[in-house]
Specification:
alpha+beta; TIM Barrel; Immunoglobulin-like; 2 domains; seven-stranded antiparallel β-sheet
Length: 665
């Protein structure tokens, strides 16, 4: 198993000082939902009993663990982002942890270690919880602030696959960020002290109650996992939502968050949640752009999102009220400058909302999380902290050294955790429309359509380069790992399922990996779901992004992502690329002669079915099982596609640059 010791010069390094390229998968898509009862989102049975569930068996039954990890190792996917939800740990109630599930996770990690696989824990959530249209938080968090989960869908406070069944619109779960329940919970979680003063749960301020339980659950897990060297870190939270934080005027639409689906303003969402008549803009993709196609009703008149006898949180704090039977907005700019903590640190314009969220609220939360996780791990730098910003917001713009979480250990040495930029990236047009043309895309950051195959690939490379530059400039040259990227496998009207041909997916994935290689990026692909099916995909909101499906014989579009790459380089990595069509792999690096360990290259024979010619300049290579030690040129004979080799390169004395090429025969 490769030892991930730390970071240097903006990249990961091992104990020997080698530059590491980490490649792997998110494991897995169905880990967002319980195994018992079957929590896949097309099922409603048992949905509203959030206490009596079990996530044991997510991502797979324990007896299948070795099978799946062995397969991932053969594919070269030896670094895993392991999906774990807050609900999975603490579903029974505040402070009540599922010990059986924690035991299960330990056994999963032991299996991963047997196959040389390292991982980090992803505290996963999407739009807060299963009852607000996604996954993550336990049911009791919603009830604690006064929501009635059974009426969230009918009131327009959430859109649920469980309630809509086959009527559920394609890839619109994300629009729940604009609805009342999700937006309220994130606002209270991150900024409750400022915007919800006086709102308490059991005598504790709502922000402290929610954050302390969330962090406590994962600190308990961290204490369990500290003894496992293959667990290298934790992410504080997957795709944290901004809620209403920083919004200049809650009557205005969110121009900074353009999403297909209903797009209520906060004021419309609050009125609908009270059971009052309300409408919202309906956003669709028209003419290559997102635009309103009209207004439609939001919620059901007379159906409230709140429990009987419970007032809307925002009415309690005076944002709005009912006078003479009519809703009256009192403080439209309440969220713009931090509610009761209003100051001039950040302006009142929506364009500053993302900066306000990152600096004032996300940053202290990350620091608090990292400190607790480090304490649970026995020392402050035991775990790397994989940080990401809000979806469609800004990447976190703070350096790890500014978090104030360094601690003086018993030996007098000051240690602080390594911060990793774990930003996500998706080809948004392919993801949302489930269409791949190879010549048409949409850059959500630049908000423009990309036309042409070469322009599209350049855009992929530049989008990832922006992420790397952000790590360098705004995060103290932190290492970068693309935490999520991928594509739907039910593309183009599910054509591949009818024909058994995944060549389109192979081309798309290859384009993504070419961009990764061009930027020398580590990455974890979304996703590997062991129980994926054609009928229900990954089991969550109609998504189907798994590279594994038993109905397709196991791996899907393998040649798109099972590619040669250099997991460990003894020196300064200069270039790495693989041309799928021509079957040519190139690696260049400037050797560091102080490193005694060799450079390693993963060579999957899936890409070289007729064998390959291998040559090196400035170095010799070896592969002990093939008896080709000390060669600068050799031929690899054809072998089974599931076989792989690890070539070890050693630089020649005084060479300035080493170059390895592998050419498909």
């Amino acid at each position: 198993m490769m030892s991930i010791a730390g970071a240097s010069g903006g990249h990961f390094v091992d104990d020997a000082g080698r530059w590491l390229i980490l490649r792997g998968v998110n494991l897995g898509g169905s880990s967002k939902v319980p195994t018992l009862p079957d929590g896949r989102t097309h099922n409603q049975e048992g949905f509203y009993d959030g206490a009596h569930v079990s996530f044991v068996g997510r991502p797979f039954p324990l007896e299948e663990a070795d099978e799946h990890f062995s397969r991932l190792a053969r594919w070269g996917q030896k670094f895993v982002r392991l999906v774990v939800t807050w609900e999975a740990i603490e579903h029974a109630g505040p402070g009540l942890y599922d010990i059986v599930y924690l035991d299960y996770l330990e056994a999963v990690l032991e299996s991963a270690a047997r196959h040389g696989i390292s991982l980090y824990i992803d505290p996963h959530q999407d739009v807060w919880s299963r009852w607000t249209g996604g996954d993550g938080a336990p049911l009791w968090t919603l009830e604690a602030v006064g929501f009635e989960p059974r009426t969230l869908h009918a009131s327009g406070a959430a859109m649920l696959h469980q309630e809509m069944g086959e009527r559920y619109p394609q890839m619109q779960w994300f629009s729940n960020h604009l609805r009342l329940a999700c937006a309220t919970m994130f606002t209270l979680f991150f900024a409750g002290n400022d915007v919800a003063p006086g709102i308490e749960i059991g005598g504790e301020p709502v922000q402290e109650f929610l954050q302390n339980h969330y962090i406590g659950a994962f600190a308990t897990l961290a204490q369990r996992l500290a003894a496992y060297p293959n667990v290298v870190g934790f992410g504080p939270m997957n795709e944290p939502g901004e809620g209403f934080i920083g919004i200049a005027d809650i009557r205005a639409p969110r121009k900074d968050i353009a999403l297909p689906g209903l797009a209520p303003t906060p004021w419309e969402a609050m009125r609908a949640g009270e059971g009052l008549p309300a409408t919202a803009e309906d956003i669709e993709v028209k003419g290559g752009r997102l635009r309103s196609v009209g207004r439609v009703p939001l919620g059901t008149p007379g159906v409230r999102a709140w429990k009987d006898g419970q007032a809307c949180v925002w009415r309690k704090v005076g944002v709005w009220d009912i006078e003479r039977g009519e809703p009256v907005l009192k403080k439209p700019q309440w969220f713009a400058r931090g509610g009761a903590r209003a100051d001039d640190a950040f302006g009142t314009q929506t364009s500053n909302a993302h900066t306000m969220f990152n600096q004032r609220y996300l940053k202290p939360f990350v620091a608090k999380f990292a400190a607790r996780i480090g304490a649970a791990g026995g020392r402050s730098d035991r775990f790397m902290i994989f940080v990401e910003g809000p979806p469609l917001g800004e990447m976190p713009g703070f350096p790890g050294s500014s978090l104030g979480i360094a601690h003086r250990e018993g030996n007098g040495v000051v240690n602080s955790p390594i911060i990793v930029n774990e930003t996500h990236w998706y080809d948004s047009l392919t993801l949302t429309l489930k269409r791949w043309t190879g010549f048409l895309g949409y850059d959500s950051t630049l908000q423009k359509v990309i036309v042409g195959p070469q322009a599209l690939r350049r855009n992929f490379r530049e989008a990832m380069a922006r992420i790397v530059r952000h790590s360098q400039k705004a995060m103290d040259n932190a290492p970068t790992l693309l935490g999520e990227f991928g594509l739907p496998f039910d593309l183009n009207g599910r054509r591949a399922y009818r024909r058994g041909n995944f060549s389109v997916h192979q081309r798309a994935l290859s384009a993504y990996y070419e961009a990764l290689d061009a930027n020398l990026l580590s990455a974890t692909l979304w996703n590997y779901t062991p129980d994926n099916t054609h009928a229900h995909g990954d089991g969550w909101n109609g998504e189907d992004l798994s590279v594994f499906c038993r109905e397709d014989g196991g791996g899907r579009a393998l040649v798109g992502f099972v590619r040669p790459y250099a997991p460990a380089v003894a020196g300064n990595l200069l270039a790495m690329n693989f041309d799928l069509r021509r079957g040519n792999f190139l690696l260049e690096y400037a050797p560091d002669f102080s490193i005694s360990a060799p450079t390693e290259v993963f060579v999957p024979m899936l890409q070289f079915p007729r064998g390959a010619s291998v040559s090196a300049s400035g170095a010799t290579f070896s592969e002990p099982s093939l008896k080709i030690e000390g060669k600068s040129h050799a031929a690899l004979a054809p072998t089974e596609p599931e076989r792989y080799f690890v070539l070890q390169l050693s630089p020649e004395p005084d060479t300035q640059r080493c170059r390895l090429t592998i050419q498909r025969l």
